[in-house]
Amino acid sequence: MDDRNYWLALAAMFVTACVQPAEILRDPLERVSERPLKTHLRALAADELEGRRAGEPGYDKAASYVADAFERFNLEPGGTDGWYQPVPLVSYQIDPGSPAVVLFRDGRPRPLTWRDDYGISPDKVRSWHTVRAEVVYVGYGVHAPDFAYSDYDGIDVRGKIVALFGGAPSHMPHAERAFYASTRTKLQEAVARGAVGYIFLRSRRIQEQSPWERYAKSTGKQPSLAWVTETGAADYFPEIRGGITISRGAATELFDGSPLTFDEALDHAENDSAASTPLGVEVSISGMTNHERLTSPNVIGIVRGTDPALADEFVVYTAHLDGVGRDPAVESGDDINNGAYDNAMGVAIMLETAKIFADNPPARSVMFIALTAEESGLLGSDYFAHYPTVPIDKIVANVNLDMPLFLYPVADLVAFGSEHSTLEGDVALAANAEGFSMTPNPLPEENLFVRSDQYSFVRQGVPSIFLVPGFTSLDPDIDGEARFRDHLKHHYHKPGDDLSRPVHWPSVERFTRSHIRIGYSIANATDRPAWNDGDFFAERFAARQAR
Fold first, then answer.
1. Residues 447-504: pLDDT tens digits?
2. Rounded to two decimals, what is the model's pTM?
3. Where are the chain's structural domains?
4. Which residues, in sequence order, are CB contacts of 130 under 8 Å at separation 6+?
5. CATH classification of 3-72+304-545 is 3.40.30.10, yes or no?
6. Angle at alpha carbon of residue 282, lines to 276 and 286, rounded to 5°
């Protein structure tokens, strides 16, 4: 039996058992129930899909499952190839025999050891990449005149390699901080100032969250992905001829003999004080990258709006379908990263949302996209945002789901990005209608606003939100934040994120109804959502939607 028939048979078996008298109820929200949500979750997080890594057979099976669901629900195909929008990708991986990094102080070479001392970034386009240059420490590598902060004041990095920490100063508002903390923003700034390479340093927080031993086991073991066109790869900086991430020990050597020690640099970063300085050392970085072309599809369905004056406008729901595949760091036993919460749960909720909308179309049209390659850098959403299958100026809003956790009875919701536009009102009303309170971003240090697919739409000027449960439990004896952090430490992107994880299904149902309410509020409103006057992201990106 081919994949398509397999998934049709599986879905029919479960869905037939899920038909309830509630389907004839007038209020469509009353039809949201645990059974179909659980059906989708079990199918998408099954071992047979091998973690749904983009470009691999398990992902293609998952895409077929979603396309079949859209067809059953009577959506219209919204891709360039029926239900699918094939995303052209390049798989690129460092040749394991090629990395070479050497420190030169006073002309004396000190070779570093791959994986023990550093991980090297493969090149998206070039086969051979090499650079040797002086190193300049630039703190966070942030230039933010809006916040009277710059790590580049008085520093010349032309023809130099920049050494920098991830993150951004903590005094910035969380979404703006996320913007400046993104690797894309950092490299754009470095390239604009003439840098030719980079060395990422690991903060104390990163060292604690992800010990070097774990990083070293996985670095270089799996290929990276980028979307490509005939004109090149996305977010590719050809001026950068080499980049590495180094261990604490290697960083200590890098700073040895410079105007400040690595421990002092760590302190400055934690205190948000710029202490940029040349390090008086040269570094050479070289390596060879192997490339392979492939495709992986976004899966797109459309519910047409009923108002002739508004039906050519779209509310876009998204949830990434891909996972991280098998874990190369696992030497024996279960190595499948099933991605039950990340993000089979998000796709399950989106599918139930699509079913409700298909049976009860709103004024505007609604598009549902199961996105590929989010785990490789938001590639599926970024490709769609650059090559949308409907005009970008007709997309009025994006509502994104990514890893919603239901490990306890959920009392509150967080809508990353809602404070930047009139979507804040839609979200608050929808949450309150289901008994949820709204909570500000509880994890500003994680830079979540730029780490999921809604950010691809923001960068094209579309007001967007990323909706997740908050940390507050309805059960006062349960510490929601502790359970979240435990999941992050022990299950996120690990084989433990599987169907054995606990799920509070009443919270899933309430959350799904809120998710649906948000879409109806946007789709039935007379006016389309608008950015707030003077908003940070509106000033940078809103003009792109009007092109």
1. 788 889 999 999 999 999 999 999 999 999 999 999 999 999 999 999 999 999 999 9
2. 0.89
3. 3-72+304-545, 92-291
4. 241, 242, 284, 285, 286, 287
5. no
6. 115
